[in-house]
Amino acid sequence: MKKAFAKDARLDRVTKLCRALPEATFELAGKHASYQVRKKTFAYYLNDHHGDGIVSVCCKVLPGDNAALIAAQPKKFYMPAYIGPRGWVALRLDVPGVDWNEVDELIRTSYRLVAPQKLAGILHSSSRRRGDAEEDAEKIGKKPKANQI
């Protein structure tokens, strides 16, 4: 008999944000999920990973950005096990006042770093119509690099 997991609104919301991106797919594994574009992972949803009690979304960021985000907002961001030292950061979803626009921008930034240029360009064009890469980067607390605009 399969154990049914309670519906997780945070997982649903992260999945909706990720699936809105060009060619994005996802895989569920228990209470966790991974999101890919052409077989390259751009985000993970972690729920109590290895019993840590934390619910988060993990995303790829520019070199050094993970440490900067964690130093600036340690109650919100943390270094995820295994992948953190390889340029990933985790944003907690189990704390009060989650800014879902910030979650969306972190996911989009990760997607742009991982996706093939053609697909990242599609996203970049739609982002420009919505508000520009500079605005996107500000939402996650980082200044964009010159080649990102």
Topology summary:
Layout: H1 9-19, E1 24-29, E2 32-37, E3 40-47, E4 55-60, H2 65-72, E5 77-78, E6 88-92, H3 100-114, H4 117-130, H5 132-139
Antiparallel strand pairs: 1-2, 2-3, 3-4, 4-6, 5-6
Overall average pLDDT: 83
Oligomer: single chain
Helix content: 25-40%
Strand coverage percent:
15-25%
Please name the CATH architecture.
Answer: Alpha-Beta Complex
Number of helices, counting only DSSP H or I runs of 4 residues or more:
5
Q: What is the highest CATH level, the class?
A: Alpha Beta
DSSP E strands, number? 6
- Give the radius of gyration: 15 Å
What is the CATH T-level topology? Aspartate Aminotransferase, domain 1
Quickly count the domains. 1
Q: In summary, what is this structure?
A:
This protein is of the alpha+beta class and 149 residues long. The chain has 5 helices and 6 strands.
3D structure, described in words:
This protein has a single domain, classed as Alpha-Beta Complex (Aspartate Aminotransferase, domain 1), CATH 3.90.1150.30. With 149 residues, the chain is α+β, with helices and mostly antiparallel strands. It has helices at residues 9-19, 65-72, 100-114, 117-130, 132-139; strands at residues 24-29, 32-37, 40-47, 55-60, 77-78, 88-92. It is built from five helices and six strands; from the N terminus they run αββββαββααα. Helix 3 packs antiparallel against helix 4 (117-130). A six-stranded antiparallel β-sheet has the order 1-2-3-4-6-5. A hairpin with a 7-residue loop joins strand 3 (40-47) and strand 4.
